[in-house]
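Database export, one record per block. Field names are fixed; values are copied verbatim from the stored entry.
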Amino acid sequence: MYDADGRPVEGYRYFFITLSAPSFGAVHRVPKPWDKVRRRCACGAAHSPEDVELRGLPVNIDAYDYNGQVRWHGGLSRLWSSSVDAMRRQEPSLEYFVVREVQARMALHAHAIVRVPAGSPSSAASLGAAARRAEAAHPATGEMMAWGQKGVQDREITARRRHEVDLPVNMSTAATRVISYVSKALNYSLKDITPGQDVAGSDPSPDRLAFVERLRAAARLHVRCKDCPDEGPVNCIRAAHRNLGYGGHTVTMSRPTENRTGWSFSQLTRKQIREERMAWAAANYPVADDDTNGEDQAWWARFANDLRAERARDAWEAKEHAQAAP
């Protein structure tokens, strides 16, 4: 059996590891439609999946640590590098493919697929624990950044011996399952859903708009990056001040070195998925050329479109879970 790059799958094990942001204040806990356990929210209510407008919103919008969340985003690249170093101290041959996704609370987290030699004693639990213990100094403030420790699960991606439809030549079921995980993570980060699918949900609520605007104001006006001029972030041109504090890449992967082969999937590229998303967006959300809208208006239009797409994806996933249920 071979993977999409022509390497034997038997020589590797694959793990799916999620690294999340720490808490910056209590947010409403709203279950997904397929969640069997319904926990009481910090606000005192037991929400249902129909309360989607509240998912991820602060329980106390005035007490939320907006600056702290934006600063954490500014240290995310260094924190991930520190986590890679920690995992490689346990398994020097480890390779990775990682995607950053925005959660409902507008905090980034990382979906990472790591690959280790088949004979490695490492496990998903041991590598995930090592990654979450890592810390890194913020590039501008020097304060220590760390991962959140709750609500994450690490697991091994194992081969399932079953009939595969349209299985490419010389590709194993194990390889296609790994690629499906990467594709899912990429689609999440790009807010992509199936072309032609009906859009679920509506525009963002006023409370969500207010929440995101406070985060954007923190990134634009209050939180410095390492390249900010003396007068502060208001005149800084770095992308972090337009992107809630994070100025890095959505997707990164390990590169070839003298000791490691690097990571790639020849049959799955970010360009291919981005082009599919752009085609879907053009068909579902045609935007007229209007230079008078300004950068902020364009940002809000993209945010609203992405939120609608995310809700459509949630609706599709709920339907898939319902069909898979016994």
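Remark 1: The beta strands are 12-19, 95-102, 108-117, 135-137, 144-146, 155-157, 251-253.
Remark 2: The first helix runs from residue 66 to 74.
End of record.
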